[in-house]
From TrEMBL:
This is Class I SAM-dependent methyltransferase. InterPro entries: Methyltransf_11, SAM-dependent_MTases_sf. GO terms for biological process: methylation. Keywords: Methyltransferase, Transferase. One of its GO terms (molecular function) is S-adenosylmethionine-dependent methyltransferase activity. It comes from Shewanella canadensis. The keyword Repeat does not apply. Pfam families: Methyltransf_11 (PF08241). Residues 55-151 form the Methyltransferase type domain.
Length: 257
């Protein structure tokens, strides 16, 4: 049995780096289609072009960096654990000299000042208020003036509300069935059975996360020199490939002053 309870986000992604499927580093189990869709949407908004220096903080499996490279950009991916860095570096080792993967945090990338003219940080702001402030300060530091910053999948309400299944896998599966439908239930059931009967791992994750209203977040970002350009509901896709607008997550594009 390979069902593992993890206590921190860092531990979570260390385990994900061991998965046979590199898409696990995106945090979207068995849904690489969502990873490609979400990163495609980010690329459209950010309009990567020849000569851009793109920094993707929390770059997952590197999909966005590949898209940026195809447009002539140079990409730097930041990942928090040595295990993730090694895994994603191996992916690009023989395929690209325009993508670098470095170890660091949203709050401490170890990159030079004003190194990038496009910075992306999607699905990373899930920690506490202090970490978010440090991350905004760091993102502002590494971004060139008049350049764009994309911060995505930031929750504006508590997504754990009503999820009273705790660490019980059975209660979780029933919650998925009642709230997300039969297709998602079957997908999660298969995932559970693989974890029980094979070496494929399944993680039981922490239940708390950071969230704030768009007004609060825009004001906070402004105090770090990031002025709002636009914000909009985060978009994903269903199992039937239908586009879904999130009822709990917002995406933001800022301009560094």
């Amino acid at each position: 049995m390979s069902i593992i309870k993890v206590k921190t986000k860092l531990d979570e992604y260390r385990y994900r780096a061991k998965s046979a499927d590199i898409n696990e580093l995106s945090g979207r189990t068995n849904r690489s289609d969502i990873t490609h869709f979400v990163n495609g949407e980010i690329a459209k908004r950010m309009e990567f072009k020849q000569g851009d220096i793109v920094v993707d903080i929390g770059c997952g499996d590197g999909t966005l960096l590949e898209i940026a490279e195809s447009e002539g950009s140079f990409g730097i991916g930041i990942l928090p654990s040595e295990e993730e860095v090694t895994r994603v570096r191996d992916r690009f080792l023989t395929n690209s000299d325009r993508i670098k993967i470095e170890q660091g945090l949203a709050s401490k990338t170890e990159l030079p000042d004003e190194v990038a003219n496009k910075v992306v940080c999607n699905g990373v702001f899930l920690l506490d208020e202090e970490d978010v402030n440090l991350a905004l300060k760091e993102i502002s530091r590494i971004t060139k003036p008049n350049s764009f910053v994309y911060i995505g999948e930031l929750c504006f309400r508590d997504e754990t509300e009503g999820k009273n299944y705790g660490d019980s896998i059975l209660k979780w599966l029933l919650w998925v069935l009642w709230n997300q439908g039969g297709g998602e239930f079957l997908s999660r059931l298969k995932q559970t059975l693989r974890a029980i009967f094979t070496t494929e791992q399944m993680l039981i994750l922490p239940k708390s996360h950071y969230y704030c209203t768009p007004e609060e977040f825009i004001s906070r970002a402004k105090s770090f020199g990031l002025n709002i350009n636009e914000h909009f509901p985060h978009k994903s896709i269903s199992l039937n490939n239908e586009v879904i607008k999130s009822s709990s997550r917002q995406d933001y594009i800022f301009i560094k002053v």
